[in-house]
Amino acid sequence: MKTADIRESFLSYFESKGARRLPSSSLVPDDPSLLLTSAGMVQFKPVFLGVKNLGFTRATTCQKCVRTTDIDIIGTTNRHHSFFEMLGNFSFGDYFKSEACAWAQEYSVDVLGLDPDRLWYSIYEDDDEAERIWAEEVGVPRERIVRMGAKDNFWSAGPTGPCGPCSELYYDQGPEVGCGLDSCAPGCDCDRFLEYWNLVFMQFDRAEDGTLTPLPKQNIDTGMGLERIATIMQGVHSNFETDELRRIMARAEELTGATYGTSEKIDTSLRILTDHARAVTFLIADGVLPSNEGRGYVLRRLLRRAIRHGRLLGRTDPLLAEMIDVVVETMGDAYPEVVEHHDLVRRISESEEQRFSTTLRQGLGFLDAEIDRLKEAGVAELDGATAFTLHDTYGFPVELTAEIVAEAGLGVDMALFEVEMAAQRDRARAAVKDESWTSFASAFNDIASRVGQTEFVGYESDDAVATVVGLVVDGAPADEVAEGTAAEVVLDRTPFYAEQGGQVGDHGVIASEGGAVFEVADTIFPLAGLVSHRGTLASGSLRLGDTVTATIDVMRRERIRRNHTATHLMHWALRLVLGDHVHQSGSLVAPDRFRFDFTHFEAPGADQLEKVERMVNAKVMENHPVRSYETSLRSAKEAGVTALFGEKYGEFVRVLEVGNFSKELCGGTHVARTTEIGLVKVVSEGSVGANLRRIEAVTSFDALEYIQREESELAEAAAVLKIQRFDVSERVGTLVKRVKELETAAERVTTTLSSGSIDEMLGAAVDVGYPLLIARLPEMQAKGLRTTADVLRGRLGGGAVVLATVSPDGGPLLLAAGSDAAVAAGFDAGAVIKAISPQIRGGGGGKPGMAQAGGKDASGIDGALAEARRMLGAPE
Q1: Residue 620 near residue 680, CB atoms below 8 Å
Q2: What is the pTM (predicted TM-score) of this model?
Q3: Cβ–Cβ < 8 Å for 653, 636
Q4: What does the pLDDT look like over 488-517, one tens digit per residue?
Q5: Of 27, 39, 22, whose CA–CA distance to 200 is shortest?
Q6: Is 819 strand, coil or helix?
Q7: Dihedral of the CA atoms 434, 440, 444, 449 (nearest 10)?
Q8: Where are any strands of DSSP class E within 777-855?
Q9: Are 249 and 270 in contact (CB under 8 A)?
Q10: For residues 569 and 620, is the Cβ–Cβ distance under 8 A?
Q11: CA distance 288 to 695
Q12: What is the pLDDT of residues 242-288, one digit of tens each?
């Protein structure tokens, strides 16, 4: 049975049991406490917590998941993965243990056709009810029901909150793949008993003292690893030998020339390429981009680990893009998002592979330097901390480091390296610790379970009469808020837009009939669908149940609306100018500006940015209508509406249309016509990460203020330069060029006046009754020539100099200078210059102690100096 057939059969089976088939949620969870989606139940946490009602009580999904806490193990075994698919069926206060167990058995035996004599079942050690259901209702032999402790068979969200026993289904693959021990049974570390389905019975609420109280609504959460059940169904003993993974691996073999099964070293690299290609494809398709932190760092490690193992297999040319192609071909039918973003995924991986090639060279340079240092010091072993730095910073597997240092006759301190690796794993586990259940008993959960979601009326109205249904002070529920207290207010309905989709939350006022005035400084979603108004009670007293009027800051909202619609125009123009690979990858829509992040692989040219700005403003001035409406996600996509890269949507969505040229999914607030935006001015563009650019811009009065500020700066510069405004750039260019020339000339003078150069020139001085130096100097200004003459005259000790140079503009310069002693001995600088300046078609003069001249013919400099030698009696 093919993997795709198993996936479909599972979902169809549970649809037949009344479950709603739902698509996989994104690998980027809505839950900020989670780094990545790592289980099928993640998208249903608000439902299990009782703060969200889906409108149905049974669901089934095939969820794409990523787990990388033990990334260094992936590839070394047959069943560990960074990316995997989890089949699941869920009950929200509907069916419970009896149905979950019976259906698991029915699907396993009647649908998949598994041999019931090979199935084993584990239950929690105290769960007599589960044993009774399996034995008496389902009819499995009691001798194949195994009781296990809480570590293996009891699930909990945390120290407190929802929890419950588990029951796992195992498939006996036969003694030939086991450890051979008589004690071998489900739970053994060998591969004989393969756990393929976990049924979680979420039935208790654990208190701080450990007391377990039955939940009012008991839930079911199950997970079956698709790769594992495919292994069983296809009669192989490795996940990587199943049809889909084997097809991807075959491409890795083709690209590298390696063959699976040749050696464990080769097999490890091929498994890593196969696994990581899937993870990379799906992470990028869900909006994750390579970076040095968070999800982006996970992606970067996967990319570089795959690239490195391609190199270990002898592949030096880029290979990930071609691996991504086969992933899309293999899995695109089940996950259309990888098809939609195929080109972008390819380009990002190619860019990262090019970047890593540079890093790899740097890493090799670092390692070579370390090897040289160790040899000089007579040390026979590379320390583990350095090996870890190479692993963590440069992406070097320790095996590669060990291989390179072995060629130099050295070893690696593996013990210290493992200590560093263990510490990193601990940090990784701590970073992805699932703390999203700890708010089970929080104030907002209580409010949401009591009153449901907040009705948003802000699309149609700037104010609304509402009822206070929740008050929270310092994280705890309150019945009343006193004057001067910072608090959070929850209303049954509100015109306040809560921060989401890049748009900041509204400000405004909530006023009660009793005279209380609550000043709202921010509006957020503490839970999906529940709006919290954060602020301070300026006057009066506010109580639960009070009737209030909620009024937003209208002028602030207007500015936000202009900026939000402008982001849609910016997205449209960027895609036309730079290409279809451009996707929005984040934004900030504030009252005073907007920020727009987008995928692109190089800095746009100034002409491209100018074109984008012109196109956006053209659409503004064309006065296009802007309208929004709600529809199903499927209908929106069929109509060609743009879904933002990496964004997550529900079954029903809000569409924003601008004219007939821009259609995007967006829940924000917008203008009614584009002319309301007034003007859009780009103020900056730059890189914010690999393959990620950012534009910042202003609109309306903020754009006018920005332009006026620029105009004021230009006018001030023109006044200082005493020219017209539109001549400033030309004049500044000329001045910059002049400054550079002067700096160059100053450097030459400095070089000429350096002790070495002075000593060298003084060595050419002759005695003509006084020390005399006649020399040609490097190009410099007249001032530099005078400074040099003063220094040389002083160093000669009662002597004289005749110097020549060419100024930066090409004109020849002559200068003669003598000390009092030289003048007394007959030296006359003025007479010298008068006699030799005709050689450069110039003229000049001065006093006996100092004279200079400029001319028009630099070719006459050598003749002028020769004439000076003849006149002063110096040898040629």
Answers
A1: yes
A2: 0.70
A3: yes
A4: 999 999 999 999 989 999 999 999 999 999
A5: 39
A6: coil
A7: 130
A8: 800-806, 812-818, 843-846, 850-854
A9: yes
A10: yes
A11: 19
A12: 999 999 999 999 999 999 999 999 999 999 999 999 999 999 999 89
